[in-house]
């Protein structure tokens, strides 16, 4: 077994995915006495809510990602393996990974979700997703590179293609990246590319009839008004059907020429082979009972974006794929595994909705906390505090705060480097 972990006498909990949920679960088990094995295909934990700021050259990737091995230093009986999990063999109580087989007593799947292109290969090939720190870096390089190409392009139509940015999807990610790029258009482009000032156009294309459909209508209207005020062209009721790398085509016959298409229009759960068919629900999410146990499996749990709990009357379609859901489910599963080991009954998951927020560039955001729905500067300041608190590491918190303060006063940050390996070029 190349994964090379001594089995020992302890109960072994294997956690697949060290994202928001997986990490919370691992930390919650630190006093359990279990052997905890964490497996992730990356060697870092990332903070997705700030990925759009990396994509728009507002933050460095290292500000929102933290090395996993550092996180478990000093935790006894913890093992980390950087490996891609391929499949599960329930009879053997084992997972197959890119570094070998790992056996478990309890398995928790927290593999999150990935971009859903709804089977359109051409869009998947040509558009840029914004799900990971690597996607964000690719996006930042792509947009900055196209600005450089626009600068030297003499054909007006071709130049405009480099300057048009089309964001597909009017959820929180679409609204946030649109707001951030609108600021780039206003403050960065005229300074760095004086010949291109006013030529950049940002389109936010949404198939539904309002932005932020998971939020209240008032928040949707506030977000749209603010984006339009910042110069974003909001297109509602437009469904993208194709993108060949040059022209974005809509179902209603409209087209936009663009070399920069950002796809934030849908997600599907990550998965592995060997899961029972009966457990696979909408968009690949694993159907679970109220204890997050995967349907038809024993001692296998799924949490966060990958899971879909059935039977909660308050959330008949399952819980939203949000950070708080992943974090709270992780804590409940940790408690339940300990309870089961002590011969106690497990307790069902009850989601405590702490609220939702989205930023719309600097000094503007929308927030919904319980009955309170508000926007503007107050919502934006609250957003800053909440997100700063959630970032891992004192150094990261410090640098993010410093970046935000610096950008707030002059927007002259110097992160606009196009950094690519030779192989990528
Ligand atoms: C751009 C963006 C912005 C967001 N903004 C917000 C926000 O403002 N507020 C909010 O509440 N939520 C937000 N979310 C959603 C939130 O980030 C997710 O709900 C949350 O991260 C889910 O946690 P998770 O543990 O289920 O999955 P993740 O945090 O996605 O972690 C999954 C982990 O599994 C690993 N993995 C995947 N496949 C494998 C494999 N085969 N083998 C090994 N490891 C694997 C991945 O590397 C990753 O580390 C945002 C998401 C994105 C992408």
Protein model, in words:
Residues 354-407 form the External alternative NADH-ubiquinone oxidoreductase-like C-terminal domain. It catalyses: a quinone + NADH + H(+) = a quinol + NAD(+). Keywords: FAD, Flavoprotein, NAD, Oxidoreductase, Transit peptide. The chain is of the alpha/beta class. Among the domains are: 12-41 and 83-115 and 268-341, 3-Layer(bba) Sandwich (FAD/NAD(P)-binding domain); 121-265, FAD/NAD(P)-binding domain, CATH 3.50.50. 32% of the residues lie in helices and 23% in strands. It has helices at residues 20-28, 51-55, 68-71, 121-126, 133-152, 156-163, 172-192, 217-229, 323-341, 376-390, 394-410, and strands at residues 12-16, 35-40, 44-46, 65-67, 78-82, 85-89, 94-97, 100-103, 106-109, 113-115, 128-129, 164-168, 201-206, 233-236, 240-243, 247-250, 255-257, 260-263, 267-269, 286-288, 300-302, 307-309, 356-359, 365-369, 372-375. The strands form eight sheets. Strands 5-2-1-9-21 form a five-stranded parallel beta sheet, covered by helices on one side. A five-stranded parallel beta sheet has the order 11-18-12-13-14. It is globular, with a radius of gyration of 22 Å. The protein starts with 11 loop residues before the first strand and ends in a 15-residue tail after the last helix. The relative contact order is 0.15. The model has no long low-confidence stretch (mean pLDDT 94). The protein binds flavin-adenine dinucleotide.
């Amino acid at each position: 077994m190349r994964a090379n972990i001594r089995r020992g006498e302890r109960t072994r909990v294997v956690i697949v995915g060290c994202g928001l949920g997986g990490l919370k679960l691992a930390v919650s088990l630190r006093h359990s006495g279990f052997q905890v094995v964490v497996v992730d295909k990356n060697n870092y934990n990332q903070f997705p809510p700030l990925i759009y700021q990396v994509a728009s050259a507002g933050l460095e990737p290292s500000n929102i990602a933290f090395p996993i091995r550092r996180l478990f230093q000093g935790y006894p009986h913890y093992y980390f393996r950087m490996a891609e999990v391929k499949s599960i063999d329930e009879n053997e109580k084992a997972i197959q990974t890119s570094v070998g087989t790992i056996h478990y007593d309890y398995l928790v799947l927290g593999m999150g979700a990935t971009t859903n292109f709804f089977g359109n290969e051409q869009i998947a090939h040509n558009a840029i997703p914004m799900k990971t720190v690597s996607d964000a870096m690719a996006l930042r390089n792509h947009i900055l590179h196209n600005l450089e190409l626009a600068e030297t392009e003499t054909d007006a139509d071709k130049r405009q293609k480099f300057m048009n940015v089309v964001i597909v999807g009017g959820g929180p990610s679409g609204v946030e990246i649109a707001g951030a790029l609108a600021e780039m258009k206003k403050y960065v482009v005229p300074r760095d590319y004086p010949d291109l000032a006013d030529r950049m156009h940002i389109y936010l294309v949404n198939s539904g009839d309002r932005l932020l459909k998971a939020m209240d209508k008032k928040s949707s209207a506030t977000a749209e008004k603010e984006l339009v005020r910042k110069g974003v062209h909001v297109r509602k009721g437009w469904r993208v059907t194709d993108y060949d790398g040059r022209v974005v085509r809509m179902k209603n016959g409209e087209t936009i020429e663009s070399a920069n298409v950002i796809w934030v229009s849908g997600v599907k759960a990550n998965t592995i082979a060997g899961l029972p068919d009966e457990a696979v629900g909408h968009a690949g999410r694993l159907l679970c009972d109220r204890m997050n146990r995967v349907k038809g499996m024993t001692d296998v749990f799924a949490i966060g974006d990958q899971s879909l709990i059935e039977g909660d009357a308050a959330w008949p379609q399952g819980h939203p794929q949000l950070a708080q859901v992943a974090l709270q489910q992780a804590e409940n599963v940790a408690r339940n595994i300990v309870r089961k080991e002590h011969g106690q009954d497990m307790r069902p998951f009850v989601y405590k909705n702490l609220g939702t927020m989205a930023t719309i560039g600097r000094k503007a955001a929308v927030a919904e906390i319980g009955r309170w729905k508000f926007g503007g500067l107050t919502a934006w300041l609250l957003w800053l505090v909440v997100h700063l608190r959630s970032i891992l590491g004192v150094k990261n918190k410090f640098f993010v705060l410093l970046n935000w303060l610096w950008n707030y006063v002059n927007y002259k940050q110097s992160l606009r480097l196009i950094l690519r390996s030779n192989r990528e070029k």
